[in-house]
Fold this protein.
Amino acid sequence: MIKTKPNEFILFHKLLMKNAPDGYVPWYFPIIKYNKAPDVKCSWKDEKARLSYEQALKRLEEGLNVGIAARKEDPLIIIDIDDYSFRLEMPNGGLIIKSRKRCGFHGFYWKGETFDKINIPTDSGEIRAVDQYVVVAGSYCETSHADIENQNIPNSLKEEIKRDDMLGVYTVDSYGINWNGCATLNSLDVLPSFFLKKLKEEKERPQIKSTSIKPKGKHSALFDLTIRDIISIAPTKREPHPLHESDTGMNFSVSDNVAHCWRHNVSLNALQFLVVKSGYMSCLDAGTGHKGSNAGTSKIINDNGAIFYAWLEAKKCNLIPKNDPIPVKAMKYIAIKHNLIKKEYKGEILPNKIYNIVLKLVEERY
């Protein structure tokens, strides 16, 4: 049984091209059946992976999925809103697609002369404007009632979605008869508020070049761990993210000894991965932004709590010896947290009495 809806794609393409800039040709490419990951041997950015409209339609008619990308050099802007509470902030005049869960939205727009074509990843959605993609209308991804129960939406909406015949399908949202094509965006100011907040945070965040934290001399085995010590997948192969929701998307891979989250466009070394796994920080906050992603630098820099919770998680997962020494920075974090020393404490090591109290606290409470 074919679960894709080719007619939705036909409508999507027609509406997208209604007022497309001269010379624009959509960058369609193959997506894995019932999934959101590229279905190509080369990069989806390679011209060899590109599909014509006719090829994309044929693929959907065969029950296979298709993606569409906003490339760096083309005028397409894609706004992806995952958080239902922000749905009304989608800029007016876009071609709006309902996601497979029926409570997320993809908006398609054209770049105006004064609009900066950038990516902005957040936990509530993303601006996908520079070599980023979404699944096109008509594609299908397996979606269960349990997936809907996990959404942060009103219970009445959950029940409505469960009865939706299009559950799992990406569909074109309804339009008025006077819709004249995708709106043109001329300023970042028209973006939903949480994107603007993210941009402001990144502008104000200190830019630190490295997230490598490896002390010299005798130190915790935490700092010797590599991502390969924690997870094992084939290089560059995409899989579901092990640390956050990814029930259909293969948005996680490992290369060059770091993990990559393709949902948030960040990389994670072993320490960063453990910080996320511990629950102390989100993937977006702990990770280091990919070049051009606007995800920013990692927030674990100068955060002793990150060191403590990464060390604790490594112990819980038996990645380091049971008698592995707790890092000095982690001890300082516990000492400050339990009001044993002031935040302004500048000493390299703790006084003996405080040191022993911290060890006991960690053993008894953590």
